[in-house]
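ARCHIVE CARD
SHELF: 3
SLOT: left
DATA:
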Amino acid sequence: MATAVTCLFGSSALLADGVTIAGDRPAQSLDISIDKAPISAVLQALHEKYGIEVIDNSTDLASDQVSLTLSGSLPSILERLLRNQNYMIVRSQKNVTGVGRILISAASSPAAPKGAPAKEEPPPMP
């Protein structure tokens, strides 16, 4: 996926396809504004600005356009941004953000509720 990236205000802000990232201490305080952009654009902007590795095996992140503003530490912002995804944040003290890698997996099918009758398996083929 190719994303156009333009730097504004030196190293403190970044604008990429409707995503603005501002803040000098991202592990403690960061502001991310999203204007009609998919979550994948936010992750791409974080990769471009901070070198965070993003491994995305889902298909959901590129489809929905969102508009919102998030503030806080980068790990807390990611928790809110990815709340409906299967993800893992790998922390790293080597990165100024405190995040080294973001792993996102495809959504699995929901488990049947407890007490629900088990699905019958079809008989094996002869």
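SLOT: right
DATA:
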Amino acid sequence: MASGMFSRGKDRTVSETAATIEDQIAELRDQISSLAKLVAQDVADGTESARDRFSMFRRNARQAGSDASDSLEELIASGEEILAELTARYKDTGREVRRTVKDHPFATLGAAALAGFVIAAILRR
């Protein structure tokens, strides 16, 4: 019996090995295909999740902007009211001072002189 390289016994072993390798390659292809489908699904799920989070962030930012705008408008209105009140008080105080000076000119001069002496004494120290 010849046991050379090209004998029938080895042909069967080679063909069986080739068939096994082909089966393994086919199985690997199926597994790679399944893995690619899973990765694609994960990417799609991740993209949807990111899109949802971005939409929620955008809604929150719009709401915060709206709230800030409302608060700013309220603050401006409050500031305008305070300014109007201070202006009215300033005008009333000016009128009261003028009336007091008119009614009591000598007392006003005495008070001004006294205030001048007090300020001068403070500044000398």
